[in-house]
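Now read the record:
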Amino acid sequence: MSNSTPATIEDVARIAEVSIATVSRAIHTPEKVANSTRLKVNQAIAITGYTTNAMARSLRLGRSNMILVVAPDIGDPNFSNILIGLENEARAHGYGILIGHTQNDAQRGLEYLKFLNSNQAAGLILFTGILPFGHQTMTARLPPSVGVFEPVFNGGIPYVGVDDIEGARKAVDLLLAEGHRRIAFIGDSKTRLAYSRRRQGYDDGLDAAGVATGQRIILEGDGTLESGRHAVEQLFMRDTLPTAFMCVNDQTAIGVMIGLNARGYDIPRDFSVTGFDDVPQAVFMSPPLTTVRQPRTAIGKQAMALLLEFLGDGQPAETEILLQPDLVVRNSVSAPSKQWSKR
């Protein structure tokens, strides 16, 4: 096919050996097309470059069928499954996805907003939990936007995510039911709303169980493996150790487990550990990590549906949609060790 001749939907249909109507369905409502047919159409689109040309036409017309997804860390184990939900829902309604990877750099986030200002993207999905600083100078008003994974701290934009308070409550209630009272919360944060909500679930559970505030052990953290390891070192320098570690996410919990193992302790015989997220590594830990599972693909689907509602009507009906988490009980929790209980 000549590079100078724009591909048409007829070209795609001819190569895929299907009707034009089937090509249209495969692009806009893929769930209504058989997998084998969809694969043929996708291969034909790749060969012809039709999608690229369709995008170019939409830009010439002054409107975009692309959604900008801005994420701080595309290596985050939570990102890919949420992206699957976002992309499937977008494609079902004739939209594509652009990914802006900020690498935790606020300036990059601002640069990606240029896509919105120049009509290269119709709306924004924000993973960062914070709007790019100075965005007001980039665009007079923020385009239709939805936050996912992390509530937006300074934006007041609609949010779709897991019920962090409920998830944390399930984890702390499990530890309490096993007989733990000295439960350390690792990963408190004043700027990450998801983490502060998980802290609230921890406090709510201990309040209900009658555990005094003075008996609670709270350490701040940034959700990294290293912050979990550091928390273990901090606690071993104190006089009173917890019997259980309730971690703000799985990465923190894995760091705690590594720190305890390095000191020769057995989990869960000596200490119990819980996480939050249920990242793929959780099940491969030794022992496998008890954690709270986020319905990541469903979060992505709901977030995109909310954004498309925003694009269609101008204002979404709901400003916060919280999906219910599941407690996944594995082998990192047991009753408190007698040696620590007596201390």
